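Quality-control log, excerpt.
Job 1 of 2 completed; input and output follow.
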Amino acid sequence: MVWSGVHRAAGPPMVGRHAERETIGRLLESVHDGFSGVLVLTGDAGVGKSRLLEYAAQSAQDLTVVRLVGVEAETRLGYGALHRLLRPYLGRLPALPQRQRDALNAAFGLTDAAPSDRHLVGLAALTLLSDAATAAPMLCLVDDVQWLDRESAETLAFVGRRLYADCLGLLFAGRDGTGDHDVFDALPRLGLEGLADGEARALLADGVTGHLDQAVAEQLVAGTGGNPLALLELAVNLGSEQLAGITPLPEPLPLNRQLEEHFRQTAALLPADTRTLLLLMATTPTDDRATLWRAAGALGLSIRSATPAVAAGILNRGTTVEFRHPLIRSAVHSAAPAEERRRIQAALAATSAPERSAWHLAEATDGPDDSVAAMLEAASELAQARGGHSEQALVLTRAAELTAHPGKRAERYLDAAAAHLASGNLPEVRTLLELTAPDLTGPAARVHATRLRASVEMFSARPREVPAMLLEAAADLGSTDPVARWDLLREATYAAIVGGRLITGTTTREVAKAAADGWRETASPAWSPDPLIAALARSIAYGYAAGAPALAAALARLRTADDLQEQGAFSVMVSIAGDELWDIEAKREILGKLVTADRGRGALYGLSMALLSLATVEIWDGRFAAAESCYTEADDYMAATGFRASGDFHKALLYAWTGREAELRAAIATMNTMAEQLGIGSTYRWSGQALSIFELGRGRYREALDALLAVFDHDPLALGDMNLAGMVEAGLRAGDRKAAAMAMERMEERAPLAGTPWALGLLARCRALTTDDDGAEQLYHESIAQLGKVPVAVELAWSRLLFGEWLRRRRRRADARVQLRAAYESFESWRATPFAERARVELLATGETARKRTVDTQFDLTPQELRVAIRAASGSTNTEIATQLFVTISTIEFHLSRVFRKLGITSRKQIGLKLSTTDSGD
């Protein structure tokens, strides 16, 4: 039930909980000051969570208080709880940006719009609540979060993670050990235990009307562990002689889990029609009073049936009939006999809306019933259309349970597993896959199950067994379904590239050959990932000469696409393909389109992956601050989607260029551990590249070469090309001409086939390094000219450094200074410390003093302030910036006010001028 600005009866005075009340007070103070606050209260049933929520409501003086209570019977209704919370504010929907408005309309079934990404629904809910709080600061109290449907829980957790300056407080409460608590893990949490002994005795004394023996009080406090609800129930229900110590206390005392049994026993003493009404109330959605009383009428019940329950303290007295405590609702529901539950469900089926009727009918059914199962399957399609994947999964699971034929039952279990996969509930996917295993018939069903198992492994970042698993499924399918077979081969190729040399049961080349041979060019949209995956497979299986033209064509095709769609970490494959061809322009353009598309759809996981790939583009162009911004934003979205932080291993390349050795080595250690534990062999290639760049900058050529040799012979695709120029340099400087020759041979083969300025510029540099005569000078000039055509500033500075070193060794100091000065100033401006120091030493050797730049602190802007400033400088409105960064307009306004103060400006037009002297790109 939702109340706005309405408080329930206060109940007995609160005893103790001083620290908890102070924490809640600070949250309310933050909301009053124009900011936001979030807190999750957890603990056993009856420990006082609901009482603290009531305290918060009483203390929220000038705030609009909005309440939501999770109900066990509603956990399957996707977005049901969220709809109840937001229903008073749906009149504000027209003011939302179009995509957000469509997302909420679809989620609530208000229009026929296609379902949106769940995080876009979250952004819409955030915007709606923030808009309402702007008019009147708000406190949302959400009790029994363990009974929220998963979609609503995820959305509210998302809102909690994105609040900042929104005049909005969120206070959640839920029992430990039940429900989807994991979705709230990233939010501030306060665990509640029983009251301290003195406070518990005081609470007990307040609840006892007669004499309370001190020894009895101590026994009750010890026996209940200070649980407030247990103490209050004992004060009311124990006899006066027991409380006075004249007769013994009952064993066991009704505490913790026994509290529900106590409430069950209390309810069992009520008249039959009252017990029926209580069960109906416990089963009906709390805000659907019309359905409740229609079903009550069908069962021959009236409002008078509630009177005994009010007298017994089961229901509250008031204008609305409601349970006195959420635990009583759960007790009534769980204690009811199965036959009585089915009778209630049958009455609800006859009186509910069509989309809910099928579920009630299923719950009223005892044993298999194919007609009801078919109705449920149809209802699951309605849930899917709203994006309620958890609801869809639960409905399909119930449909499978009612299905008589084993094969059909297995198919419905598989469909339910797929819905759980879409909701991110991997444990349930595994459980349902185990149920289906004995009854799978035919290759199509077996392939479906295999793809689900493979998806679970990939979502869990465990690619080791996936390629062999999918290859076997493709062989099982044969030529019966070419489309499904290609899907398997495409997914196997991606898993093989990620897994690298650590995959089992097959090899990367075997997988690639199967995919390359199985690919058939068909009419497909320009955004399709299929041609690119096929080209990558062809390059692995048949060599660079065979694959490079196909890769170039695939990238060119993607550059023409108006609207790209992230599919299976597609951005990672785009990044690898761009690196293999040294095509930085294609890589930047396609990844930029993916970022834009993912932002628009609210696809935060895909957006975070695309930003991680885009960060490498920024690094190669010397835009280290922009790369850092990409990494920070990606981490932010990872957290927003519920993924736990895995450390800074993805920043290894940035750490290498900036000389942050401790962070680099920690990142490499993490990557190598991930490789061994999870089978992600590709991380060896990333760590080898980063370490080699760091060591080359430090002039430790043997160490750099060792890092490169460790990955040179393994899976040349994916960073194979990117390491070649460094390997030539490291090999020559370390005196290992054989290693340099191996890298040079591959460079001579591949760079002309790629034909991009980046490739040709590196080829000219490598040729210059291996040339002993004066011909090297022209090759260095060629390298600098080619690299200057594309956004690879660090490579350009690197060639200038090598050219300057070459000139100095030939005693051409004046010419050397020109190149070394340009290299040094570039590296120093980017904070590329190892290479800046290398260039500085060389410059000193020419007789010129190199002055270090004054450290630029970016005006002390935080990463989020910098992102906001960049977008404001580009002309984006506050609404557009808020949508792009998945925060509220209030938060953007707050950050902009701090940007203005820190930069000492008064106009958005001045932001660009202030930032133009530093690397602040995004």
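Job 2 of 2 completed; input and output follow.
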Amino acid sequence: MIEHLLHSGWTLKARTPSLSLQADFQTQEGWTPATVPGTVQWDLLKTGQIDDPFYGLNEKTVQWIGEDEWLYSTEFTVTSADLQAEHVELHFEGLDTLCTVWLNGQQILVSDNMFVPRTINVKSCLQEGLNTLQLVFESPLEKGRELEAQHGRRPVWNGDHSRVYVRKAQYHYGWDWGPVLLTAGPWKPIRLRAFTARIDDVYAPVEVTPDLHSALVPVQVQLAGTLTDQILHITLLGPDGQVVQQQQVQASESSQVLFQVDAPELWFPNGYGKQPLYTLQVRLQAGNEVLDQKQLRLGMRRLRVVQEAVLGESGRSFYFEVNNQPIFSGGANWIPDDLILNRISDEQYRRRLTQAKDANMNMIRVWGGGIYEADVFYDLCDELGLLVWQDFMFGCGMYPAHESFRASVQQEAEAQVKRLRNHTSIALWCGNNEDYQIAQSVGAYGPGGDESKFDAKVIYEVLLREVCERLDPGTLYWPGSPYGGDDVYTGLTGDRHTWEIWHAQMAPYQEYKNFEGRFVSEFGMMSAPSLALIQQSMPEAEWFPESQTFVHHTKATGPNGKPDGARRLAVYQAENLRGHRNLEEYIYNTQLVQAEAMRYAYRDFRKRFEGPGKYAVSGALVWQLNDCWPVSSWAIIDSLEIPKPAYFTIKRELSTFSVGIQKTRDLEVWVSSGSFKTHEATLHLHAYNLQGEWVSSTTRTVTLLPNRRTDVEAWQLDTSPLIHFAELLIDDQVVARSSEFPEPYKYFHFADPQLQLEYLNDHSIRITAQKPVKGVWLDAGASVGWNDNFIDLRAGESRVLEAPDLAGRTVQVRYLGADQATQVKPAVVGA
């Protein structure tokens, strides 16, 4: 096969309505060099025609782009060898979104779905030498409003109501954490393919036997083109690169072979084992000529979603079982890492997903208001051990279901399921994000609801289910998130979104245990981003939390659609902390509240992963891992890639062992284990008074049961306010720590911890506390990846924190109760 990437020589311009379309294409004026793959906004930004929409209030000045039509044009050369091929195709991997295509003046395509690749046989349209390819992109906003006028206005949460009619990334219309940026352009590669025959699809659904002793790898290959006497060579390589098995068969439109692998090397999620990957090579040959070839990486794993009775409780469990082991699914929701999608590099994907892995996460939910992510995203999830909960791209809206819309959705679903189904990381297909919830809110679902008003239910419960069960029958299809039967809020079956904290009644974050579900697939607490990001994205005169620009970069809205993020942040601060006195303290306070909320959430949800027959809560996915622009949001990593304190809190709570302590009448103590083995452990408990003086200590010897919670004998102390610490040791090594300071923090004056800090070398700092201290936060700006941060120390304790890129940087140190941050400079001892 001869393949040409058609990515060079492109120009773009805004459509001039006073000219005919062809006259507009012929005009010499207004054209700008264009990037393919790319978007209009990216090229206008690169050529200085617009200001950075992420800076200051510039978002408001670029809205005209989404209201205009845009022309793209290029010329490319076709050789006689290309034309001699039996088949010549143009393949558009992705067009954003409403696009009509002309080749040499002949219309060859009308596309209206950003998520559907398009392939057109163009041999009869081509000529030897120069050929002209022209694209017109309509305004998604204008087209959506035309469809809305035709079919009716529909309820949505976030963005323009017309978005539900357009199969475009929904977050481009604006969300409660993101700006409005209605991109247009060929956002994925464009290829010209000349061939006799080619490989169209390879499907290899690995089946590990229940005893885990062997695996079947049925390989199905679909071919396109003219088939005569070609041969398919199919080879399976082990994780070490050595040939395991190979076969060759006569090529046909649909060919199948079967491999059986004895004693397969099993793939486990992050934290539960290794991630060995086999390689499947498929090669189509005519004699010694290779016509086409494809390669897949496959993990050998047995995965089920188990829904069974929970002992002593109503409802059913909802836990992922991998290689016969129940897994606590700790992780995060993923939004696209930018709005200008072609800016997201492979390395950026690697950095972000590695941050998730390093936080001890084992699951990522690809949220339904974004995109089906790039191939490299799923490759990395396979490699890093991150299971993927994959939504279809419907979010927070009452979507239509007329015939042409359903047909487009079916094409989309078939294309994306085929593209992604071979990935070991794909653990579940999910119909939508919160569409059952919004339907219930308007009386179209739930108790007493009129489901005849819920048009898209047929998409979620019939169309998408049929596609998934036909194309990927080994992976569970789930109708929506949240979804659990007749009421999305019960939490007794399926998954639940816990937004009683932050949204709804704004319950205290200490009450996460009161709003659990069998699988909590969304929950979160907002905070400000890092100081470095604020300084990079706003004019200096606006560096205060109440400024117009700061509020503009806080997109959260209330039930009335009006901004209320700052108000809710203020409430949670006021309930727990003393008021901030400057921007730096505001950042620290909001991030501390977020981190403490995550401590309660992950600790309490994981506590309910109690063992066989009692997996009452089996998943916790924070909203959200990442940001797509500079904003105050629920993200635990901001768009400058700086983790917030909550990131490190979650990392500790999701480690193989975590300790829970909670002051009720006595000090309640438990340990959660993610190990498949039993461990003998020692637990040290310490208590201090508010002056930082030691009060009491005790030691418990604990047998930690495998992969569940183990309760520890409570510690009886007097009822005066005390500070408690716990350290869990296995083989004399500390494997988990926990602490509890009396709350609300604003009521108490904690003793000066008399911190001592010193650089040990170019990548590590030692911190010593003379008195108990909470929330020690080290800030060295962007590009400094700490192994730990936001730590609590007991009296006399020293800890060493490491960061590979620390060399020469000044570090700002802050903790709960500090009057101001302290600077620690290289080679300076003490603070």
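Post-run check on job 2. The mean pLDDT is 96.
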